[in-house]
Amino acid sequence: MTRAEFVVVANRLPVDHIVNADGTDGWRPSPGGLVTALEPVMRSTHGAWVGWPGQADVELEPFDFDGTRLVPVTLTAEDVELYYEGFSNDTIWPLYHDVIAAPRYRRVWWDAYVRVNERFAAAAADATAEGGTVWVQDYQLQLVPKLLREARPDLTIGYFHHIPFPAYGLYSQLPWRRQVLEGLLGADVIGFQRVADAGNFARAVRRQLRYETKATGIRVPEADGSFRTALAKAFPISIDTASYVELAERADIQARAAEIRESLGNPKKILLGVDRLDYTKGIRHRMKAFGELIEDGRISVEDVTLVQVASPSRERVQAYIELRDEIELTVTRVNGDNDTLGHSAIRYLHQGFPREEMVALYLAADVMLVTALRDGMNLVAKEYVASRVDNRGALVLSEFAGAADELGTSLRVNPHDIGALKDTILRAIDMPPAEQGRRMRAMRKKVIENDVAAWSRSFLTALAAAKENS
Ligand code: GDG
Which of 15, 236, 293, 396 could, after both became Cys, cross-link 27 (CB 3.0–4.6 A)? Predict the structure, then answer.
């Protein structure tokens, strides 16, 4: 097998398996932001991507797709249950999101996590050319940097963490807290969404491992008694802004936005939430605030509708099964108490939609509600801003989402404070067009300048520099 100079390692390959109507099968690019961000680098370097194809128990040889070499890693049904649904999504995810749900610490899950991380590291080691660069993505693969460095000390290794890194008081609950820190420190550059996440990581390293840190540098001891410097720094991720602008400027999508308003009965104001159905996103808090505003008589169902897209997610993990029941009960209650025959308070859609439909929804929404209780970045906030080519609309944004660091002219809110959330939603509903324009223009400037290509460029530049200096 020819080895690549640049290799991405992520839990998922950037493609989905499809079966056509005539029974033949094939692959289709999955529309993630990471794929778009890395496409130029992958093409120019003839890069490779190591990841799981998304189905259990399939064994596939590496294959080429759209100019990228894809290297499938096999996961058995048991691996999916223990490593992915268990340790990744029922231990690390809740722990790193400030224990909004209780993390479960199970030794068999950890054992599977180690085993699967070893498999990914071995596949990456095989796929990468002498002196090449590997970029590891996210919390499912925190042990890969160290394992890879041990196998291939010639490589330059980067890691990007898409979710928050918690304060030490919480992180220290993790029975394997030391192994995870050591795993991450195998990278030359460890990227985080927010300055605060990088700070929490450095503090954990000082407290747990007693390594010295200075600004963004961490002094890591090597086996031979020497030291190297690993960089732990914020690189806030973004979206492919231009593609959202292009969609939002299309006449058919603008017409679809008008049609959506029409089909909702032309309410004076449309509020919108778009989230994976996840307990970190604060969906219930937003519904509670909205329901109370109606009950208080401050808004009426004739005038204001909340559209909530909650795309299905992690449907086999217990906490998500319970969350879905709670949210659906809340929707039914708010609607049952407040609907008229002609108008619904909440239009709840437990479905995924094509990107075109999402942009039409963004254009139709007077107010976007992003009320995450904790979120690494939150790309939905940036997508809404990018889509508002008319410089209209108001963004209510949780201060606990990474995006709040950059989108300073949003209406920032603490979603736990239901009283403040209600006031902020009303303020957004009543915001005069001139103020909408002033705030939106400032936010648009940010997402146009800092798009996802700029993000990957700045990470890879830092990675190249770090290797030179070490
Ligand atoms: C993690 C971190 C961080 C959702 N429903 C549909 C749909 N989506 C798209 C959105 C957006 C993406 O999924 C969700 O991204 P978020 O950033 O909002 O949240 P997570 O999935 O939790 O992502 C997060 C991110 O990684 C990147 O680092 O920002 O903090 O948790 O792009 O538009 N897209 C379509 N139909 C849907 O129904 N087409």
Answer: 15
